[in-house]
From TrEMBL:
Name the UniProt record assigns to this protein: S-(hydroxymethyl)glutathione dehydrogenase
Organism classification: Bacteria, Pseudomonadati, Pseudomonadota, Alphaproteobacteria, Hyphomicrobiales
Domain (Enoyl reductase (ER)) ranges: 12-368
Catalytic activity: a secondary alcohol + NAD(+) = a ketone + NADH + H(+); a primary alcohol + NAD(+) = an aldehyde + NADH + H(+); S-nitrosoglutathione + NADH + H(+) = S-(hydroxysulfenamide)glutathione + NAD(+); S-(hydroxymethyl)glutathione + NADP(+) = S-formylglutathione + NADPH + H(+)
Record EC number: 1.1.1.284
InterPro entries noted in UniProt: ADH-like_C, ADH-like_N, ADH_3, ADH_Zn_CS, ER, GroES-like_sf, NAD(P)-bd_dom_sf
Domain of life: Bacteria
Database matches in Pfam families: ADH_N (PF08240), ADH_zinc_N (PF00107)
Matches recorded under NCBIfam families: adh_III_F_hyde
Cofactor(s) named in the record: Zn(2+)
Protein species of origin: Devosia limi DSM 17137
GO MF annotations in UniProt: alcohol dehydrogenase (NAD+) activity; S-(hydroxymethyl)glutathione dehydrogenase [NAD(P)+] activity; zinc ion binding
Amino acid sequence: MKSRAAVAWNAGAPLTVETVDVAGPRGGEVLVEIMATGICHTDAYTLSGLDAEGKFPAILGHEGAGIVREIGAGVTSVKVGDHVIPLYTPECRECKTCLSQRSNLCTSIRSTQGQGTMPDGTSRFSLNGESIFHYMGCSTFSNFTVLPEIAVAKVRQDAPFDKICYIGCGVTTGIGAVIYTAKVWPGANVAVFGLGGIGLNVLQGARMVGANKIIGVDINPAKVEIARKFGMTDFVNPRDVGNDKVVSAIQDLTGGGADFTFDCTGNTTVMRQALEASHRGWGTSVVIGVAPSGAEISTRPFQLVTGRTWKGTAFGGARGRTDVPQIVDWYMGGKINIDDLITHSMPLENINTAFDLMQEGKSIRSVVTY
Ligand code: NAD
Ligand code: AHE
Ligand code: ZN
């Protein structure tokens, strides 16, 4: 079949909207009509050429919501007409990691996802006979895409696609980092570095679990107003206090350091600040941001010897097929706010504007509706 899709031809080049060919789903796969997709910083990161797994030409996008239109042989967990959210972190419920219940990092199809193909090593996308790579197993910048059934979460039918698409990455990553990965306790002091599409969801997750101080750190003061709306109690601008004073500013606000800190920037200097701003003896710092391929983090080992824990999270530690439907329920029940984070929406033809707005710090989330 044919599908409109925004194709990334080369690193750094704007996407172009094409009519691509999409081959039907094979065994264990489903064809999904994507109704809406968010644009995440990770899409921009891969487009920039800094992603070790970035392949071109590719159809990017990993934050979508849509409807199952066709199922391949042997598919049992979803049917035609089901509403689904694609999962870049699938949940096979059979691999060692899924069975361990210790991590959400399902391994069943991870290697082919990183190679830009379906699990059988081939692509369902082509244009004029030339194959186009998938991206993170999702490719939500195509109106129709193919996914393994283990990589879709079935969700309720009354939830609006143009809002719940954001649960496909940003919302779940931010809130999940708080509740599944860090397990922030009521009354904890929290510091969030980077108040974008992810960091603001960390803020609302921290508020949800009853955190005490929720400190936001960002170089863009335009983020303050929305951050306060999502639970920020105090703000630190590294450009005002001085980059070398960020850690002490947080220690002063918390009486020695935050119980939990989160990096939502992808900047390795910030990751170090976040670790060192966590409390001696028990502080935990969670890396969410994705750093350029080849970048490394450093700190004095003394920071760890003195009881801090440095950890990371992908997709907020959420088990997609299990946890995502519940997060949709939280949204529908008014427990979490998504609407105010979606600052821009546009048709696929204007998708490059979404990247520009994000790079300029003028949007939180842009959503493309098909
Ligand atoms: P974004 O562009 O919306 O937000 C980034 C924010 O960081 C901006 O507000 C920016 O002003 C701020 N910032 C930049 N440099 C800073 C600095 N030196 N100090 C303080 N603040 C700074 O991006 P996003 O969509 O929120 O994504 C954030 C990061 O999370 C990206 O690296 C993205 O790739 C990553 N990410 C990771 C996961 C995961 O599963 N681990 C999921 C989604 C996104
Ligand atoms: N391809 C990159 C890794 C990028 C990365 O860490 N991605 C996160 C999700 S970001 C969503 O916006 C992730 O899920 N990581 C775990 C995994 O298995 O990829 C690189 O550096 O090679
Ligand atoms: Zn993302």
